[in-house]
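The protein record passed on below.

***
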Amino acid sequence: MIHLYGKAPLRARNLSALVAATGLAFLSGTGASAAQTVVKWLHLETVPSYVKVWEDIAAKYEAAHPDVDIQLQFLDNEAFKAKLPTLLQSEDAPDFFYSWGGGVLKQQSETGTLMDLSDAMNADGGAWVKTYNPAAVKGFTFNEKIFAVPYKMGTVSFFYNKALFDKAGVKAEGIKTWDNFIEAVKTLKAAGITPIAGGGGDKWPLHFYWSYLVMRNGGQEVFSAAKNKEGEGFLDPAIIKAGEQLAELGKLEPFQGGYLGATWPQTLGVFGDGKAAIILSFENTEANQRTQSGDGKGLASDNIGRFAFPVVEGGAGAATDTLGGLNGWAVTRKAPPQALDFLRYLTDKDNERIQAAAGMIIPAALGAEDGIADPLMRASADQLAASTWHQNYFDQDLGPAVGRVVNDVTIEILTGQMSPEEGAQMIQDALELE
């Protein structure tokens, strides 16, 4: 469902076109008469307090620019991925939308639906572009053209329920290697505790396991070669070994009952309700598990611990290599100048500091990181700052076609329906078709 928040609803003609194009319904805001320029902002944020922060920032901008109406539109994660291609081709394309970067953004840039932001961001000696972490800008640059405004950076790590670990006698600080992690899973199961909350319904939450295992076994050199169709590609022995370790985890049946049908919000709810001890998740897990829990409160923040994905003994990857997000706002080709002006405002140091203080983001704006107050978020930021190789999510970095295969293969290997060799070959075949 698309929800719209703003000073005025879209025109009835646009409503009909949007519903026809996407098959989705939406709720529109009500209030003052339409402003001269509507800026449509498409996001997938589910935490109400975070949306409220954005609404407050938009309201401040609107107060200073009364001829602009910022309208927040929402799509849930899976609908966003499924419907966005159609929406971008419609008359009612958003003016800017959430992006994970990588091959997906690159493919979108090649369709002609996105605005090249290079000139705008490099104007006045690069006054705008220089406000962001250079690595963030680089992640949104293809063929020397910038296609998204940096918003946040993040890293995936393990979060755990301290009370359940104590009950089972598991020490998080002792989980340094993959073998240590497997032993912890076995110990939790023996104590009658579901070890891991898994989101098999959406598939992508579980591809983090395979991705990290590839990184820990092969290191940056092996993954880079595979991605660029060099050497043995995804048939490299280190990648096969990652699949074998994933299969080993699957044989332990570590996830909650029905995990193959669980969406990501439901998975966060499983963790937040204390029904699983571990979740491999994002830097803002503490807030998201609370939102998705049955009582709306979830686990107390002091009952949640965090540790990095462990190393693989003998692997080429380092404990300081991180997997995670590089997120920004992609702008569509026909967006008005006011959309760019608002994005520059939304992602400036002061407003990114506000978002960081609210526990929303590890900011991409330089100097805004001092706003991070949440201890778990700070731990993620510190890990990211010390990263020796930060890799974008595999399913995003490899592009939509190969990414879908990666997600499918992960589930098939976990459930024993496909061998690690067969999975690697499927990914290699999909890459060769690119």
Remarks:
- Residues 2-147+326-385 form a domain with the D-Maltodextrin-Binding Protein; domain 2 fold (CATH 3.40.190.10).
